[in-house]
Amino acid sequence: MKDARAKKRSGARGRPSPVGKLVVFGVGLIGGSLALALKKRKSVARVVGVGRSRANLLAARRLGIIDEIATDAALAVQDADLVLLAAPLGQTAAVLAQIAPHLSAKTIVTDAGSTKRDVIAHARKYLGAAFARFVPAHPIAGTEKSGARAAFAELFDGHKLIVTPERETDARAVTRVSAMWKLAGMRVTTMRAADHDHIYALVSHLPHVLAFALVGQLAGYADAAALFGHTGGGFRDSTRIAGSSPEMWRDICLANREALLAALDDYLEELELLRGMIEASDGQGLEARFAAARAARAKWLVKK
Question: What pTM was estimated for this model as a whole?
Answer without folding.
Answer: 0.90
